[in-house]
Amino acid sequence: MKRLYADGAAFALALPILFSIPVLIEFTQHVVEIELGFYRHGLTAAAAFDQRRLTLGFAKVLALLLPGYWFVRFMAWNRDADRAKRIERPAATLFGVQFALQAAWQWLMLFGPPIGIALKLGPRLTNYAELAATIGVSVVAVYLTAWLVAWPLGNSSIGPLRSVVIMTGSFWRTLAYLAAGALPLMALHYALGYGALGQPEWLVWIMMTLDALVVGLLALTTTGAAYLAATHAATRKNISLLDEPTAGA
Length: 249
Fold this sequence. Notes:
- The chain is mainly α.
- It contains 14 helices and no strands.
C-alpha cells in the first residue's frame, strides 16, 4: 500500500497533464453544482436532473477508467513515464476494447432503466435485485482483475476466462487491496462533499478544488490496487502479466 500511494504521487508529478484529466472534469462538475446552488440548498430536483451535471458525471466515470492504461503501465515498468504514456500496439487496442465495454456498462448503469423496472419487480424485490446485482458485479470484477491489467500491458494471452483461473485463490486478498486503494480517499471525498453543504461560497470553492485533486488521486489508487492484486495472484501461479513467455504460461 505504501508503494501504491507513493507511485500515485510520483505519477501526478511525472505526468501532470494525464493526472489532471479526471481532476478537471470533477472540478467542472463542481462548478456546475455551485452555480445550481447545490451546496446552499442540497440536492434539489433542478440539480439532480440538470443535463450538464449528468453529462459531466458520465464524463468523469470515463476519465476514471483512463488510468487503467497509463497508471498500470507506470507501475509495471517502475515509474517509466515515457513508457506509461506511449500509445503502443497491441496494448492500446486491447485497452480500447476494455474501455468501450466498461463505458457501455457505465452508461447503462447511469442512464438505463432500473433493474426493478426492467424485470417488472415490485419495490421490495427491486431492492433485493439491486443488492444482488451489485454483489454479483463486484465478485465478477475481482475475477476479471488479471484481464483488466494484462491487456493494457499488451498481453492478449490473458483473457477473461484465464483471468478467472489466475485470480482463483486470491479473492479476499484482492478485496483487501481494492478496499485499501479506494476507501481512504473515498471517505475524504464524501467528507469534503457533505462538509461543504451550507458553508460560505469561498470555502466551498477551496473544498471542491481539494476534492477534485482527491478524485484524481483516487483514480490512480483504485487502478493501482487492481494492478497489485493481479500481480500477486499471477506470481503465485508463476504467470507474467507482461507480454512475454513464462514457465507458467
